[in-house]
Amino acid sequence: MRKLKVLLLAxxxxxxxxxxxxxxxxxxxxxxxxxxxxxxxxxxWDGAIHxxxxxxxxxLGITYEFVxxxxxxxxxxxxxxxxxxxxxxxxxxxxLAGEEPSRRVAKDYPEVAFxxxxxxxxxxxxxxxxxxxxxxxxxxxxxxxxxxTKSNVLGIVAAIPIAEVNRLVNAFKLGALSVNPDVKVKISxxxxxxxxxxxxxxxxxxxxxxxxxxxxxxxxxFEACREHGVLAFGNMVxxxxxxxxxxxxxxxxxxxxxxxxxxxxVRNGEWKAQDLREWSMxxxxxxxxxxxxxxENKLPAEVIQEVRELENKILNGEFEVPIVETExxxx
Length: 331
Description:
331 residues; alpha/beta; 5-stranded parallel sheet; 4-stranded parallel sheet; 11 helices; 11 strands; globular
């Protein structure tokens, strides 16, 4: 009898473990994703996240809701509302004003998955971080700029001198210097994530200082470039259509690999606090160089070939773009 009881207990435990290990994933149709943005989704950084979420909604059939232009005073409230409503994954932009409230809310809802753009590390057990690790295509843009400049003066209009911005602008300069050691770079930090008039003003000042190619890390530069016949590089998304006569290409951030990975990790009960940076780099499809469009025929063939060869070396792990996150100063 004792042996029988032991046997029955063993069978019961085995059955329990099998059942626990075979819990069904959340159906895509039942999955709820929310996004919280500090700026308007017209702004490329938050816009890249939004487009990825829209793609997930369209391709996977999930539920997706978002709120844009959320100020510091409302950030925590909006985040808590989504958590209370049973959203499985909440993503967004936590840089600066959103950092503290987003982490505070995550502690109160350990059963909810959070993934926020942040310059700091993950927070156990459920708060992951990401960033736009697009310094690799930014370096490629610098190579083109270094080859195309006639004045040997390049301009950069950027947001705020924090790590993720500094990473891009330094990569652009290093790419230019790698092919043209005579290049000088002028940089303007506009002190905002989204201020097109101020970005245009900064671009005009750089053009008057001799810049004939400008990296528009922020939105608002193209109008100045178009008015003065200066080449430009976009950022985050393919911005060619905004000024097709001057926008050569630009680093593109695809958040979809990060969003898709995060959704499936949550669905399958595998979510954990982690740095999601690898999903935003070229090797995982999270970063790329925007199409050249008509500049495919305007750029010298040897410049395009040089860039494509270097692009392949980055993808194959043969060349590693330096990561420099210190504030860039004008030459």
